[in-house]
Design goal:
mainly alpha; transmembrane; membrane; metal-binding; 4 strands; Glycosyl_transferase_4; two-stranded antiparallel sheet; about 70% helix; phosphotransferase activity, for other substituted phosphate groups
Length: about 350
């Protein structure tokens, strides 16, 4: 049973996001914090992009006023504040990748300072592998990786926000099932804040979350995963947070893989992400987003299922998921730089008809 204080925090988070987002939209326009269209982007008109500030206020105010203040929460808020400022600086002025990376490292170190870190990994053969001095670099690597993965999928209206909301709810379910109830409450409050913001961010969007929003959400999801999902001693517990955050992780992994295979820099941006491929097979903007929501929901449900299975059963399920993921990625072409969909009208039309049937706009 969720306590009344957490329900109140969730309602407050949702309400704050609904109320402050239109105001922040006006401020962004007046201050010139807008996203200008280019050949890589989907939108056709300049769009205000300070939505991360609305997400920050909607999450931080309720958790600080209503939830009990402890060291992990202090680290979550302090680190998230650093990430927000970093994102706002990029939304307004644009900052170099090296400065952005440095800011993310500092945010992750703040988490570690307040006791939020990965202390061990499960051993596939027996027991646990205690990280010792490697705990800090492993935690930093995880936080930076997830933070940037969420930032990377922010390519369609409502995509990163909706995906983050689904991931946050899944984190809450698994964390509470594993006895990390306070972490689950934080995740539910974050999900409520995102859902309030999604009212203005879903297609056709009135405001973008910008780097301030995508980095802030990615940071919080990464931190909550460390706080609530890395406490188990079974091999399956290692994969639960990866499944929950599967869409941003996989999209990032496939981007690195295809760029490396094609001889390009892994940091070179392209139009070959999952959402680009779904648009390419004929889905509308809204349909592509809904398909990715569904995929994220399936991965989240799989993560919840894994916590209920034996290790042997979980390994079988994981192998099946990995095979399906790589088969689907290959069919859609996200593993290759040159789309295999061109010149294959039968495959394209079939995928398009099937997906449109179930995710009609």
């Amino acid at each position: 049973m969720i306590p009344l204080s957490t329900v109140a925090a969730m309602v407050a988070a949702f309400g704050i996001a609904l109320l402050v987002t239109p105001f922040i939209r006006k401020v962004a326009i007046s201050m010139g914090a807008v996203d200008i269209p280019n050949e890589r982007k989907i939108h056709k008109e300049p769009m205000p992009r300070m939505g991360g500030l609305a997400l920050y206020l909607a999450f931080v105010i309720p958790v600080l006023l209503i939830q009990p203040l402890d060291r992990p929460l202090m680290g979550l808020v302090a680190g998230g504040s650093i990430i927000l400022v970093l994102g706002l600086a990029d939304d307004f002025f644009g900052i170099s990748p090296s400065v952005k990376l440095l800011g993310q490292v500092i945010g992750a170190l703040v988490l570690v300072f307040f006791g939020v870190q990965v202390d061990f990994l499960t051993n596939p053969f027996d027991g646990m592998i205690f990280l010792g001095k490697l705990a800090v670099p492993v935690t930093i690597f995880w936080v930076i990786g997830i933070t940037n993965a969420v930032n990377l999928i922010d390519g369609l209206d409502g995509l990163a926000s909706g995906t983050s909301a689904i991931a946050a709810v899944t984190v809450a379910v698994v964390a509470m099932a594993e006895g990390q109830v306070q972490v689950g409450y934080y995740a539910l409050i974050l999900a409520a804040a995102v859902l309030g913001f999604l009212r203005y961010n879903f297609f056709p969007a009135k405001i973008f979350m910008g780097d301030s929003g995508s980095l802030f959400l990615g940071f919080n999801l990464a931190a909550l995963a460390v706080m609530g999902l890395t406490k188990g001693a079974t091999i399956i517990s290692l994969f639960v947070p990866v499944l929950i955050l599967g869409i941003p992780i996989l999209d990032t992994f496939f981007a690195i893989l295809r760029r490396y295979i094609s001889g390009r820099s892994i940091f070179q941006a392209d139009r070959e992400h999952l959402h680009h491929r779904l648009l390419e097979v004929g889905l509308s903007h809204r349909q592509a987003v809904l398909v990715i929501y569904a995929l994220n929901g399936i991965l989240g449900a799989s993560a919840i299922l894994l916590t209920r299975l034996t290790t042997d059963q979980g390994v079988i399920i994981l192998i099946g998921i990995v095979m399906l993921v790589f088969l689907g990625a290959d069919r859609l072409g996200v593993l290759r730089s040159k789309s295999p969909l061109k010149g294959s009208s039968v495959r394209t039309s079939t995928i398009s008809r099937v997906l449109k049937k179930y995710f009609s706009g």
